[in-house]
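Service request form, structural biology core

Requester: graduate student, group of Dr. S.
Request type: structure prediction, single chain
Budget code: on file
Notes: please return the result as structure tokens.

Sequence provided:
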Amino acid sequence: MTEPVSVDETANWVAMYRALESERPDALFKDPFARRLAGPRGEEIMRKLKSSRTYAWPMVVRTKVMDEIIERLVAQGVDLVLNLAAGLDARPYRLNLPPALRWVEVDFPKTIDSKTAALADAKPVCHLERRGLDLADVAARRAFLSSLGAEARNALVITEGLLVYLSAEDVGQLADDLAAVPGFAWWLTDLASPFILKMMQRSWGKSVAAGRAPFRFAPEGGADFFSPHGWRFVEYHSLWVEGHRLHREGSMGWLWRLLFRRMWRDELNRRSGPMSGVVLLKRAG
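Core staff response, request fulfilled:
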């Protein structure tokens, strides 16, 4: 029987991956709130979904790579971080961030309320704000982005684990909306390749589709997709390459490297690869 996983429950699922990593003696990061935020539902999803633990490594590597990029950009002068579809991410509580940094989280009102209650006794390391908003409401989204962008000069936008659930048209429209705000200088996101999308659909596709959150977005051209929408490619970090660097690649990593040796080599300087990765974009113009 298929275990339905709704779009808001995917946050519990991913938080559970962070919890498992944090509890390792050789953890790449420590998220002391992850298990609390994942809750019983996160544990249940991990237990029932096929191969959930086997594919923990890409989630963990994605988290670590994004952590590194965020801290680097903030150190270089980012004055606002906007995390769209923030889910149960706890970076404002655990990263090395300056107290004056403004961090804004946006997600469904239900998710924001639940997260605020769960972390009521915790203190963020920077200035944290939360906003309950359905990002699919285009008019409300544009009004919010315009208002927030007017208050920043060098903002970083994060969409971790969001784009894969959107259509190409929706992603393009979101990219246009973000590019229309001069204060949004950087965009950090993750991209799945068509090859990986098919693997995800085979493993978990029925569960997320049953929860009305099907996997959809995996552009053939990788980060080049964003060029017509006002964004310039800056960095691509293959999760396969980074997993090898961080000693968190899959159990059959040696076999994949053998099968994709040429792709592995090419990915180091490409905008996208045959697998999936983290992409940093900069607003054009």
